[in-house]
């Protein structure tokens, strides 16, 4: 009889373990299905925590000692994720005919004339240092000088917008507080598609909502994502990123911030995009120090050549110069009065190297120019009529109209 009870007890224990594992897995899979790594840059001007392991360790520790790594990551970062409530005044323009005092008086007596209204929005952000420096998306705080920042513990602080950068969709907000919880920065440049991705934010005002997925792709250009006015190589993930998540952190399995979530495409069902943390850190440092970000500018329009594109351009050549090469980055137009024109670039030049480094496509040219310094000499090697030339150019600051 004792033996029977022992066997029965063992069976029940195994059944409980199996059922528990099944319930956990089912909940995890349902959650995943329904919701959809210290940096190589110069030491940051802002005192931020940086992982000591992310530069060399790409492994994901999901052993029996760390089965619930997602919960551990969220526990580590969650207190440093904030909700940002922004309000902006939206001007309502009446038709020109209604601006006359007579019409204004008449219609005010008959029906109320609509006044400028206040538009409110909610987004997310994360605390970069203990003194209250917060990073978020530019579109979250666009048009607002002051915002309300709500911490996880419910405390509300008035936040001042130190600067926004529309080209990268990064903004910095400062609150007056001390000893705040902070995030740890990881690295995005060592990510591999298929790694875990954890998003934390406040969709629909629901604070500290967690969604999980994987890194789906890397280096998505702004044009591929459908926002050609941006200068970002996006991280693509299938973790759900919805309005309200914008500005929140994207984490790796160790709970390190690898990107800023951005709900930049309202129709991107099942797809999420994030700004790599290296880009966000570089821009946020500039915004913190001087309130604006620098974007070096040459003033060229270019296209990446391949055999098919070369043939098509030859058949419809309206550029006024022969197109004989089948690879390289072809300059099709030089902007008048731009640094490129002043330095002697010509339409038809094929860019081979920038800063001494070979380039394969137009995106690589843009990336290298973006990382150059405004006013500092930059060498660009070009093929002009089968002759190699090196042009020295000093990038200028991108014109304001390019930012609109």
Essential attributes:
404 residues; alpha+beta; Thrombin, subunit H; Pdz3 Domain; 3 domains; 6-stranded antiparallel beta barrel; 22 strands; elongated
Secondary structure blueprint with pairings:
Blueprint: H1 2-34, E1 49-50, H2 69-77, E2 81-90, H3 101-110, E3 117-129, E4 133-136, H4 138-141, E5 146-150, E6 156-165, E7 170-175, E8 184-185, E9 196-201, E10 209-220, H5 222-225, E11 234-237, E12 249-251, E13 257-262, E14 272-276, H6 277-290, E15 296-297, E16 300-305, H7 307-315, E17 328-334, H8 339-343, E18 350-354, E19 357-358, H9 362-370, E20 378-384, E21 387-393, E22 396-397
Parallel strand pairs: 1-8
Antiparallel strand pairs: 2-3, 2-5, 3-4, 4-7, 5-6, 6-7, 9-10, 9-12, 10-11, 11-14, 12-13, 13-14, 15-22, 16-17, 17-18, 18-19, 18-20, 20-21
Shape, principal axes of CA atoms: elongated
Q: How many E strands? A: 22
**Quaternary state of the chains:** single chain
Strand order of the largest sheet: 2-3-4-7-6-5
Corresponding CATH architecture of the largest domain: Beta Barrel
Biggest beta sheet attributes: 6 strands, antiparallel, barrel
Q: Helix/strand-derived class?
A: alpha+beta
Helix content: 10-25%
Instruction: Count structural domains.
Output: 3
Which residue ranges are poorly predicted, with pLDDT under 50 across at least 5 consecutive positions? Answer: 1-44, 52-60
CATH topology of the largest domain: Thrombin, subunit H
CATH class of the largest domain, named Mainly Beta
Report mean pLDDT, rounded to a whole number.
78
SS element count, helices: 9
Strand content: 25-35%
Report Rg: 26 Å
């Amino acid at each position: 009889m004792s033996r029977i009870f022992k066997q029965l007890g063992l069976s029940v224990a195994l059944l409980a373990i199996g059922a528990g594992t099944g319930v956990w897995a089912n909940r995890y899979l349902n959650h995943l299905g329904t919701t959809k790594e210290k940096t190589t840059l110069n030491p940051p001007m802002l005192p931020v925590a940086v992982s000591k392991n992310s530069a060399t360790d790409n492994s994901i520790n999901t052993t029996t000692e760390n089965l619930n790594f997602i919960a551990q990551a969220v526990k580590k970062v969650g207190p440093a994720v904030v909700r940002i409530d922004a309000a902006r005044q939206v001007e309502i323009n009446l038709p020109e005919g209604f601006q006359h005092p007579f019409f204004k008086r008449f219609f005010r007596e008959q029906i109320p004339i609509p006044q400028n209204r206040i538009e409110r929005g909610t987004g997310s952000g994360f605390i970069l240092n203990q003194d209250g420096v917060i990073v978020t998306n530019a579109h979250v705080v666009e048009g607002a000088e002051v915002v309300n920042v709500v911490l996880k513990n419910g405390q509300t602080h008035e936040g001042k917008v130190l600067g926004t950068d529309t080209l990268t969709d990064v903004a910095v907000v400062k609150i007056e507080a001390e000893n705040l919880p902070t995030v740890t920065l990881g690295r995005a440049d060592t990510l591999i598609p298929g790694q875990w991705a954890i998003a934390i934010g406040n969709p629909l005002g629901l604070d500290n909502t967690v969604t999980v997925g994987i890194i789906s792709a890397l280096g998505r250009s702004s044009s591929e994502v459908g926002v050609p006015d941006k200068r970002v190589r996006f991280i693509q993930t299938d973790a759900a990123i919805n309005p309200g998540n914008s500005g929140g952190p994207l984490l790796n399995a160790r709970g390190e911030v690898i990107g800023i979530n951005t709900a930049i495409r309202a129709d991107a069902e099942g797809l999420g995009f994030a700004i790599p943390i290296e880009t966000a850190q570089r821009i946020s440092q500039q915004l913190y120090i001087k309130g604006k970000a620098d974007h070096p500018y040459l003033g060229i329009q270019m296209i990446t050549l391949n055999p098919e594109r070369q043939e098509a351009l030859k058949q419809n050549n309206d550029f006024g110069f022969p197109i004989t090469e089948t690879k390289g980055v072809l300059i099709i137009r030089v902007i008048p009065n731009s640094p490129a024109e002043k330095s002697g670039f010509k339409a038809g030049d094929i860019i081979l190297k920038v800063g001494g480094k070979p380039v394969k496509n137009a995106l690589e040219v843009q990336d290298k120019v973006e990382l150059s310094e405004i006013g500092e000499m930059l060498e660009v090697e070009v093929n002009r009529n089968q002759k190699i030339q090196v042009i020295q150019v000093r990038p200028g600051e991108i014109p304001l109209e390019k930012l609109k």
